[in-house]
Amino acid sequence: MPFPTKRLWAAILAGSLFLPGAAFAQATTPAKKPAAAPAHAPTAAPAPAAPAAPAAPAAQPDAAAGQQPPGPVKADLVPTQANWTKVCGRDQAAGKDICYTTRDFGVQADQQPILALAVYDIKGDDQRIVRLLLPIGLMLKPGFRLTIDKGAPVDGAFEICFPNGCFAEAKVKGPTIDSLKKAGGLVVQVKNQVGNEVDFNIPVNGFGDAFDGPAIDPKVLEEQQKKLQEELQKRAEEERKKLEAAQPAGGAAAPAPAAPK
Predict the structure, then answer these.
(1) How far is CA 169 from CA 60, 131, 216, in A?
(2) Model pTM above 0.90
(3) Dihedral angle of Cα 89, 163, 160, 28, to the nearest 10 degrees
(4) 3-state helix, strand, coil in the chain (%, to 5)
(5) Cα(77)–Cα(204) distance, integer angstroms
(6) What sign does the dihedral 214-215-220-221 (CA atoms) show?
(7) Where are the domains of the chain?
(8) Of 124 and 199, which is predicted with more confidence?
């Protein structure tokens, strides 16, 4: 990752905080009542264990000293998946059919995602759920706000955090989803740990076709997730080797003193 990108995320989150790559189908979510937060469709492939993200560094010295934090930080994200993915299945406990349409986003297309967006559609319910998987290191109490194009903002709240990210969701009605289908983008506004506003600009082109289109075949989804995991592991190994190569060679270790006779 180029140095300017590292500096951007240091400004946003007071540290480089990346999610171990995964679409929503790969994230681990707690059991909840389906009407409030439906579980992922049972057709989704099982999720591989995700490595823990590094803990967030301490806040910047100027914020700790009580100085005025800088203005809003804007992050223009790009998809890290070729297309939106629609997954459908039946929630046996609730007895309802559930679909979700999801996509991962990052600073660069060839880097690990830092944010995931999913829209849940429960058959027979007018209410929809917009769920986000956001990086750790954000202020949870203010929640988040999303704005579709130049429409009215929609407020949402954080639900739960794991080592690899935090779930947040907003409950919306059909007209909001209709606007999202036609939109070119949406903005997710949050605050970082020093109180700075962070704007994630997310392109949503193609969402409408995926939301209204057929669900992905479960076997195809499982294969996609397998390839994604392998690719992410490969990138992580390449980054590890680069870091090791960049470290200065240490001097030879001093010989241990001879044991007294």
Answers:
(1) 28, 4, 23
(2) no
(3) 10
(4) 25, 30, 45
(5) 11
(6) positive
(7) 19-29+36-42+70-136+157-182+206-237
(8) 199
